[in-house]
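Why should sequence recovery work at all? Because a backbone constrains its sequence more than one might expect. Tight turns favour small or flexible residues, buried strands favour hydrophobic ones, and helices have their own preferences. The token representation captures these environments compactly. In the example below, the structure is given first.
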């Protein structure tokens, strides 16, 4: 694969990348992680600048982008909604035009997918979706990397997401798993199943890759899973729905009984963090020997670095 084909490209959702391109980025992520572990120092972003726009708070996304870019000699600039006029006094399009003249790339973490799409359309530089209400592509690349560290190539492996099937992580996992040929299951109450339009798109990807997709409310579907994955039950911006969400999702907690229900002693537990221990997952699972949540968190940095190395001119 020609690395030049990535230069100048944005990452808004994995729908825009082929399976081969995703595979390239995963392999590059492994390479940069090895370089870091070996103590190699590279300065591949010297003279480069990165704008980090945050409408939502963040630990892993902000730290991953800032450290990955800074380690390579680049200069990241954090911009909250208190710092710039994004979509308020100044239109998103005009903000994009200005930032594109000053920065080599832009990361956006916020609410609307439309915002990150407009930033990419009008800035003229690579734009990275650090999370929107619809998708969280940088997270799920780290998830697949973590799965492969445990089991080898992810093709044919079974990954079950248990919880709110409409959230950005579940939706993004469905896309990337369908592209890469995994057996992906969302186990969620009927009221929280992902939209049919995205299911249809992903089924088309699955037909090409050999993946299987299953959306169900039956917890027995975890049988044979290589990994069980969950996320918080109440996403940012949905706090008003907390009581109803807890009522719906209480039966879908990932606990030791559900881990054993897979029938595999080597099943791993995944969580994108932050976690509310005692709600979506019990403490003994997330802090136990089957948990790979902390590897996922670290891998956010390596995958983000790989994405930026591939795309920044």
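From this structural description, the recovered sequence reads:
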């Amino acid at each position: 694969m020609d690395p030049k084909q990535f230069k100048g490209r944005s990452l808004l959702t994995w729908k825009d990348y082929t399976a081969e391109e995703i595979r390239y980025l995963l392999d590059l992520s492994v390479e940069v992680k090895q370089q870091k572990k070996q103590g190699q120092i590279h300065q591949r972003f010297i003279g480069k600048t990165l704008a980090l726009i945050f409408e939502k708070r963040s630990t892993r996304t902000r730290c991953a982008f800032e450290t990955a870019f800074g380690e390579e000699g680049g200069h990241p600039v954090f911009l909250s909604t208190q710092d710039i006029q994004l979509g308020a006094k100044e239109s998103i399009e005009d903000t994009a035009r200005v930032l594109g003249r000053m920065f080599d790339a832009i990361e956006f973490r916020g609410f609307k997918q439309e915002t990150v799409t407009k930033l990419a359309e009008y800035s003229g530089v690579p734009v990275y979706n650090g999370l929107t209400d619809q998708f969280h592509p940088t997270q799920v690349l780290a998830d697949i990397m973590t799965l492969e560290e445990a089991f080898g190539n992810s093709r044919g492996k079974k990954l079950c997401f248990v919880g709110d099937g409409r959230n950005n992580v579940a939706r993004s996992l469905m896309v990337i798993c369908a592209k890469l040929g995994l057996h992906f299951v969302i186990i969620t109450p009927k009221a929280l199943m992902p939209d049919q339009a995205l299911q249809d798109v992903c089924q088309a990807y699955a037909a090409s890759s050999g993946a299987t997709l299953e959306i169900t409310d039956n917890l027995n579907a975890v049988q044979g899973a290589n990994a069980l994955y969950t996320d918080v039950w109440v996403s940012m911006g949905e706090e008003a729905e907390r009581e109803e969400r807890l009522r719906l999702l209480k039966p879908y907690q990932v606990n030791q009984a559900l881990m054993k229900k897979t029938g595999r002693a080597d099943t791993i537990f995944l969580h994108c963090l932050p976690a509310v221990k005692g709600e979506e997952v019990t403490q003994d699972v997330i802090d136990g020997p089957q948990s790979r949540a902390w590897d996922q968190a670290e891998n956010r940095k390596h995958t983000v670095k790989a994405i930026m190395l591939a795309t920044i001119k």
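A few observations help interpret the result. The chain is about 40% helix and 15% strand.
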